[in-house]
Each structure stands twice: as structure tokens, then as C-alpha cells.
Amino acid sequence: MFQRTPRLLIVIVAVLFFVTGTYFAIRLARGYRPSLASRALQGTGLLAANSVPRGASVFLNDKLTTATDDTLNLPPGQYRVKIAQDGYIPWEKTLVLEAELVAQTNARLFPSVPDLKPLTFSGALNLTPSPDGQKIAFAVGNATTNDKNGLYVLDLFDRPFGFNSEPRQISRPHPDFDFTVARLTWSPDSSQILVSVNLNQPDERNILLSVSSLNDIATLKDATARLPVTLSEWHELLDKKDHERLVLLPEFMQKVATESARAVYWSPDEDKLMYTAVETLTIPENLIPPVPASSTQVQRRNLEKDNIYIYDLEEDKNFWLAAAPATDTPGVKDSSLETLSHRYSPIHFQPVQWFPDSRHYILVQEGKIVIGEYDGTNQDTVYAGPFSDDFAYPWPNGSRLIILASLNGGSNQPPNLYSINLK
């Protein structure tokens, strides 16, 4: 009897110690820390300070605190967070930390000094990116020999040891097709290019070129007679894909995207929607249940006509980006081709397009190229210099930006493609 009591006491103490230890471990893991003032565990917020590139300095309220990548336990509240590294544009944002929740910086730092490398040497005209974002078609009309002129495709992928991808010629010159002024329209699967000349004229001609090989135009059939059927099939493919994505949106935003907006573009990860409002309206609050640790940046749910916005369907947040330019009115017969190109990319008719990571956008504005976060913050000028036709396009992995520019002074040579390093 007397021998069992100490053993029972030891078991009880061990169980209490285990339960108490487990409780404290769980509370600590959720961000609770001992407070001398209250003599109890106090809830803290977690700041996951991460960046690309890693190892940047982290300033909280202007005080150097740590380096990325690190997680900090901080009292709930508002913090001015700055992440900086030599040679890069600093990242800054005001974040609100809540007890037991994790706020992430996800800071992408862009180089402060542009590093340009040429991608073409004989000029690049009539540029047309592919729907999958993996290729750019362009015409060459000023090569040293005529056989080197024609239509080319630049594959946007990285070769080993940092070598640039060489453009591939897919068609040599042909007297009936001037590639420098022809309309180039990609197929939805990015495997073909429709070349159209003399649109709306009696001598209109259309041909379909494969982008995987060198085409002999003399052996190809004219595609004009079947063009309406081909374009209808292409639009149907895009309609089907759009429908599959639209059902993911809250019902109200489905109506916005289909009835109250134009220039609708999904982010690469399909979690966000870029669109231009065509009427003034208000997006109701709480279209979906609130998400813990969602963005605390200022949003705009009161839409104004002809303004570009981004809607985050995971967090039910809507952010203003920029005013949209005036819309163009394509020709009647050309409208299907024009609409098709616009559905692929906004590059030729509005100044804003998606960056490949789905967290940033590219804005061409007043002779400079800006990359900003989807919530309207950290608008960084990554290039301010000469470039032609407002052409700026991202490498698929986000490591580079492609521009069209004439950097040879007053030469009469056509502009060439250059890459700007973003790493």
C-alpha cells in the first residue's frame, strides 16, 4: 500500500508533465511566447521573411533585424518591412501581423542596373508572341543574303552554360508574302502560324506554317477558303478553356468577367484575373469565406470604367493597376483575327501584362518598363532607356525580360531583340 503511493504519484506527475509540456509545445509552435508583463504566454504573429535572391537584409520599422530566409515571432500589429540587397531595387511593404497567423513577404528583388544581351543581329520586325508564352515569331528583311530573310521563331528556353537560344527560320522569303507587314496569328496550341496578306482585298491570301520545321511555301495550299472554319475552331477551343476557368470564380465575378469587363486575362497559375472594367459597379464584400492571413493591402472594390484591375480569387481581393488605353476598332473582316490575337495576349493593345510568377505584372509606361506586384505595391522600374514599339515580354521562367530596341545610334538598321537579366 505504502509502496504503491509513490509510484502512483510519479505516474501522475509524469502524465501532468507530459500534458503540460505538450500544451506549451503546441502554443509555442503557434507563435505564443512568454510575457514578463503578463506572466503568461502571449500570442505573437509570425513573419516569414523570404526573398529571391536569398540572404537579403530585413528591416522592420527602419531597423535591421535579420536576413532572409528567416521566420520571426513578433507582437501583433503593423510593421513597415523593407528587404534590401546591394545591386537590387529594395522591396517595401506595410504588413499587419495577427496572433497565431503567418505573414509572408515573398519578396522578388530586381536588379537595379540593367544587363542587356542581344538575341538577334539582323533585325526583328512584326513580333508576335505565342499563346503558350514559349516562343516569339518575327520577320527578318535586312539580312546579308536574301535566303536569310523570312520568318523566324525564337524559342524562349535557357541553354546550358548561359548560351542564348538561336532563332529558327521557318520560312524563306516568298514574292507573295511580305512577312514584315503580314498579319501573323498563332494557333491556340502554338504549333502553327497563320500568315495573312492583303486582308479584305480580292487578292487576299492565307497560309498555315508549322513552327517546328522549315516550310516551303510553294508546296502549301492556300488556306483562305477554309479560313472561317479554322478561326471558328480556334475560338471554340478558347471558349471551352475560358468556361472551365470561369466556373472557379464566385458567381458575381463570373458576371463581371463576362458582362462588365473586357481584356480578361488569367494569371499563369489561374488564381488571379486581370480585367478592364467597362462600367462602374461595386464588388460586394465576402464573396467567399475569409482566408486567414490574407493580404492587408488596400484594395478597390468600387470599379471605374476603363480601369485595369486584378482580382485574387483565393483571397477575394480586388486591386487597381492602371487606366486602360482607348480601345481599337478592327475592320469587319479582320475582326476575328484581331480578336483572336487579343485573347492570347494584351501586349499589342494595352500596357499591362502578366509576369510568369503570377504575383507580378509588367507595365510599359512613358518610355520605361515597370514590374509591380499584383496588389499594386512595389512598382519597380527595371528599364528606362530606348526601346521600340513598346515591346516588352517576359522569359517564361521570369529570369529575363525581352525588349525590342535600336541601340546603334542613328543607324538605319532595324531594331533587334535584347534580353534584360532579372536575376
Provide the β-strand percentage band: 35-45%
Mean pLDDT: 89
Are there runs of 5+ residues with pLDDT below 50, and where? 35-41, 328-333
Largest sheet: 4 strands, antiparallel
Shape: globular
Q: What is the CA-based Rg, rounded?
A: 28 Å
Tell me the span between the first and last alpha carbons: 74 Å
Q: State the share of residues found in helices, binned by percent.
A: 10-25%
Adjacency order of strands in the biggest sheet: 6-5-8-9
What is the total tally of β strands?
32
Structural class: alpha+beta
Number of helices: 4
Protein name: Serine/threonine protein kinase
GO molecular function, one term: protein serine/threonine kinase activity
Keywords: Kinase, Serine/threonine-protein kinase, Transferase
Describe this structure as you would to a colleague.
- The protein has 423 residues and is of the alpha+beta class.
- Helix content is 15%, strand content 36%.
- A four-stranded antiparallel β-sheet has the order 6-5-8-9, with no helix packed on it. It has a four-stranded antiparallel β-sheet with strand order 12-32-31-30, with no helix packed on it.
- A hairpin with a 6-residue loop joins strand 28 (368-373) and strand 29 (380-384).
- Helix 2 (227-246) runs parallel beside helix 4 (335-344).
- It is globular, with a radius of gyration of 28 Å.
- It comes from Candidatus Beckwithbacteria bacterium GW2011_GWB1_47_15.
